[in-house]
Structure formats: structure tokens, C-alpha cells
Amino acid sequence: MIYDVKDISLSEKGKLRIEWAQREMPVLSLIKEEFKINNTLKNYNIGCCLHVTTETANLMITLKEGGANVFLCASNPLSTQDDVAASLVKDYGISVFAIRGEDRDTYYDHLNKVLDNKPNITMDDGGDLVSTIMKERNDVLPGIIGGTEETTTGVIRFKSMEKEGILKYPIIAVNDAMTKHFFDNRYGTGQSTLDGIIRATNVLLSGKSFVVSGYGWCGKGVAMRARGMGAKVIVTEVDSIKAIEATMDGFQVMKMEDASKIGDIFVTVTGNINVLREEHFNNMKDGAIIANSGHFNVEIDINALEKLSSSKRIVRDSIEEYTLKNNKKIYLLGEGRLINLAAAEGHPASVMDMSFANQALSAEYLSKEGKKLENKVYSVPINIDRRIANLKLQSMGITIDKLTKEQEEYLTSWQIGT
Ligand code: ADE
Q1: Please, what's the largest Cα pairwise distance for the chain?
Q2: Alpha-carbon distances, residue 345 vs 79, 286, 339, 348 (angstroms)
Q3: What's the pLDDT tens digit per position in 243-291?
Q4: Residue 205 in contact with residue 198, Cβ under 8 Å?
Q5: Same domain, yes or no, for 321 and 370?
Q6: CB 10 within 8 A of CB 18
Q7: I need a labelling partner for 12 at 20 to 30 A (CA). Which of 164, 214, 282, 350 fits?
Q8: What is the CATH number of the domain that holds 96?
Q9: Residue 145: pLDDT over 90
Q10: pLDDT level of residue 417 (50, 70, 90 thresholds)
Q11: Is the same domain home to 94 and 232?
Q12: pTM greater than 0.70
């Protein structure tokens, strides 16, 4: 078996942590048992570009138990958990190509290693696997029946490929499943972003001015949890409807131009570029902390920060201190990469349980229906979404009401009014 991980001797710790995460992933575990019995993915090569975490490990094991040959690389150079990568290779026989802190060339070399194994299904988080196929690896296209995409950023990229008519195979937008983005993006990003900031800095959030840029599902989660920790939360937005929503949720909403003068901590979660830039760095208070929780490290204009600075140094794990020419200090966390994975462990397993149940069942769906699909971005079928919600509720010991016959009839009738 070929692989490239940091240190295979880390596997023991990785295995224990993978098993720990599994305890919080009952839905995925159930799917694993089904896949095993039915050999659901027999002979499929699945190429995955995902954050190499304990939760991803449980997804990889599920696919393998279903009979698939699984190949995994990282979807971010800083998110790999080296002990997990080692255990997947040593204990589970899965080919992993991922080393935490790998440089750009190694990152793409690892992506290409996954593609060398001729996947029939691709599983992306951010779209790098598909865009590499489109740009340089057309050779693998004939064997591919479809792919899945985990995150908002990737889905946006694929929808624009579809619009330009250049998408080469069908993609299931796992992100858009209700049992994914309502929970993973909101509660997962909410908790893990604060976890990352706290692990990196150990600052007290209570009483701080905490600026959240972007009020999508991820931004909502971060703002909600920061408020829960006692921070004074400010939201910046470009979308008027989201801005009203943030206001009515009780947050202060203002332009970044103004927020940048009063914030102590800034988090970008917009999916867009240069959200924090030169004009904002110039406004910031001495000691401002800046972090990103969006998929790519483009939301903070690090080049501009470099240009404004006379020096920089690492002052703690995951913290770079930039000294500006006017002597003011700005602290950049996790090199501007996803702070929840760069400085913490990503979303907790319980929420990834639903996201990865969607991934596993979407892979099964592609194996059965992929050949009939067009080169478009598809939603996760609603029956899969509902099934995952039901299984998750069951695992939590929660039962819910059913419509009575009379209620069902009422909902399909129009006659009864005032
Ligand atoms: N994205 C965010 N958190 C994650 C996790 N724990 N595992 C995989 N992908 C993630």
C-alpha cells in the first residue's frame, strides 16, 4: 500500500481518538453496519480530499467496510491530524497522503496521488480535487461517475462550473442537505471556531468586542456562541436581508470600517476575499486579534498586513504577532486558515455524524444512480436527509408526534377556512 504520512508510529494515539469520535457518531455507525452487510460500494475507488480528522477517519472506515478502495488526502495543509493519518494507514489499511503543515507543492502532489488511483467517485471539501481534475488531470475523467462536495465554498465553485457548462460530472451538494448546513455550519462552526480561538490565545471572551464578518449559517453559529461566552458581538454584512436578521437576533450591525475601530477579536466567515484589508488594519486597536473560519485563507489580506508591518514573530503556537510601522501590534491566528481546524480539532463528532452520514449515503446514491445523472450540481435526495434526521433523533432517544389522519386531510384540503 502506498501512503505518505508524517510518522506511522503515531497510530496508537490516532486509533484511540478515532474510536472516541465513533462513540458520538451513531448514525454513521449504523450506516457502516448496513454497508458491510450489503457490500454497498464493492469495487468502487473513492478519492477523498477532506480534513484528516477523527471524524473523517470514521467516514473513511465506513466506505471501506462497504467494500470501497479508499484514498484520502487533506483539503487544507493545516488541518491534518497526523496521528489519525497514521492510524488510518496502519490499523485500517487506508491509503492516506497528508502531513500537517505540508507546503503547497506537497499538498498538490498528495491530491495527485489520490487521482493516480483512478477514483470512480470523488469526495471534496472545498473543490480542490475536482478543480485539479478539470485543470490538469482529465485523464481520470472516463472512470468517474460522480462526486460529492462538503462545503459552501466548494458548492459555489461547482455551481459556477455548471453555469459555464464546464462541469464534467454530476456533483451532490452535501453541504446543502438540511441535516448538514443547519447543524454542522451553525453549531459545528460556532463551537469549534471559539474552541480554536480560545486554544490559540486563552483570552477571556467575556466583555470583549467580538466582530463576526458574515451572517450565513457559519456566522450565525459563531455570533451566537460568542454572545453565549459574554462577548459584545458585532456583525458585518453585505447582504441586507442577513443584516436585518442579525439586527433582529440582537446583534449590533455596522460597516467593517466602523467595527474595525472597536473590535478586540475579528473572525471572518464570508467565503469571500480580502474582507479584512489594509484600511481595516490601519483602524484596528493595538493588540487586535484576527482569525478566519471560512474555507480558504483568502478572507484576511495577509499580503497587505505584511506590507504594513516592520516585523513579525511567532509568539505562541498558532499566533503570529505583526508589528506595524507605527508600532501597533496585530495578532494573526492560524496563518489565516480555518481557525477551528488549525488551532483546534474541527467540528465535534456528534455534528459531523450527520454531515458524514450524508456523504456516505450520497456515495451509495451515486453508485446506484450516478450514471443516470447529468453534469450538474444536485441536492441530496430529501429521503436521505429525512432518514438521517430520524436516525439522529432515535440515537438521542427523542420521539416526535405523527400527524393524525384528520390533520393529514386538513393539510391537503382547501375548503375549511374562517
Ligand atoms: N470540517 C469541520 N470540522 C471537521 C471535522 N471535525 N472533520 C472533518 N471535516 C471538518
Answers
A1: 74
A2: 8, 29, 9, 8
A3: 999 999 999 999 999 999 999 999 999 999 999 999 999 999 999 999 9
A4: yes
A5: no
A6: no
A7: 350
A8: 3.40.50.1480
A9: yes
A10: confident
A11: no
A12: yes
- Average pLDDT for 12-35: 98
Structural domain of residue 69, as residue ranges? 8-180+347-395
CA distances to 44, 186, 305 from 151, rounded to whole Å, are: 23, 12, 28
Instruction: Summarize pLDDT for 354-377 with one digit per residue, the tens.
Output: 999 999 999 999 999 999 999 999
Asked whether residue 62 is domain-assigned, the answer is yes
Q: What's the chain's length in residues?
A: 418
State the closest ligand 1 atom to the C-alpha of 349, by its place in the atom list counted from 1. Answer: 6
Ligand 1 site, residue 180, Cβ cutoff 6 A: no
57 lines ligand 1 (CB under 6 A): no
- The DSSP bridge partners found for residue 333 are 319
Q: Which among 133, 132, 80, 136 has a CA at the least distance from the CA of 103?
A: 80
- DSSP assigned state of 380: P
- Ligand 1 binding pocket includes 189 (Cβ within 6 Å): no
Residue whose entry in the numeric block shows the C-alpha cell 473513492: 46
Please tell me if the CB atom of residue 55 comes closer than 6 angstroms to any atom of ligand 1: yes
Beta pairing, strands 309-316 & 319-324: antiparallel
Name the residue of 20, 49, 72, 79 whose CB sits within 8 Å of the most ligand 1 atoms, as the mutation to test its pocket.
Answer: 79
What are the CA-CA distances from residue 299 to residues 275, 374, 385 (Å)? Answer: 5, 33, 31
Report which residue type is found at 97. Answer: F
Please give the span between the terminal C-alpha atoms of the chain, in angstroms, as a whole number.
Answer: 70
Q: Name the phi and psi angles at 200, rounded to 5.
A: -70, -40
The C-alpha cell at 255 is 460597516
